[in-house]
């Protein structure tokens, strides 16, 4: 009996010790930096930073447009490992892509692309030497709805691969509404003049071709109900934030309106039967 009692208490103490170890282990381990979440109510965006970044207010006042500054590494070093700046651009961005020919003379960087949710953004890589050390900076302009921002991520050249990985992680953690409407083709083709011509052609075919069909159909039957249904269907994709959905929605609405107009233009008057006068005598025989 005593052996069973000793065995029970031994298992109980082992369980308690295990639970205590689980509770105390995080406090005994070296502290790691937790990912920080930034919420900017002025520019209307939130940002989930990668682990290890800390706020560095000293860099915020260097330029009037710098609204947030973070470093990763020892802030007491003359050149911290990685620096992240967020600048306001005091305006919105259009969909035109950067052209290497438009860069200033003597530009030694290169143009790249970076993905921010459904959009493909321009990214400028700039290399420069500072006090005998080579640094690389990645500049990305993000098209937020109210006001665009620019991300600047800089670090030593030997950490280039890490910087590119961090940039992708930062963009993935950046949330905010955009003034751009996404497309099924968020690439150079989706922004090309050829694709714009294709979208215009599709819209013309839907409206003009459909109107022709409704015009021919109006000769044999009334098309008012059909036109109203087409107009109502046009509202279905209207809530979808997609360029192609907006194109289809607008084209169907225009086609529905065109069909209603055609109905009233081709409306045929009802045949009127001649009425016999009441006082007209009925013709008799002979």
Could you describe the 3D structure shown?
With 286 residues, the chain is of the alpha+beta class. It has two domains: 37-175, Mog1/PsbP, alpha/beta/alpha sandwich (Protein Transport Mog1p, Chain A), CATH 3.40.1000.10; 193-265. The chain is built from five helices and ten strands. The protein has helices at 2-28, 160-172, 193-217, 224-233, 243-265; strands at residues 37-40, 45-48, 54-55, 66-72, 82-88, 110-116, 119-130, 133-142, 149-156, 174-175. β7 and β8 form a beta hairpin. α3 packs parallel to α5 (243-265) and α4 (224-233) packs antiparallel against α5. The model is unreliable at 1-34 (pLDDT under 50).
Q: Count all strands and give the number.
A: 10
Strand order of the largest sheet: 3-4-5-9-8-7-6
Q: Quote the beta fraction.
A: 15-25%
Distance from first to last alpha carbon: 139 Å
Q: Which structural class is indicated by helix and strand composition?
A: alpha+beta
Query: What global shape is seen?
Result: elongated
Helix content: 25-40%
CATH architecture label name of the largest domain: 3-Layer(aba) Sandwich
Short description:
This protein has two domains: 139 residues, Mog1/PsbP, alpha/beta/alpha sandwich (Protein Transport Mog1p, Chain A); 73 residues.
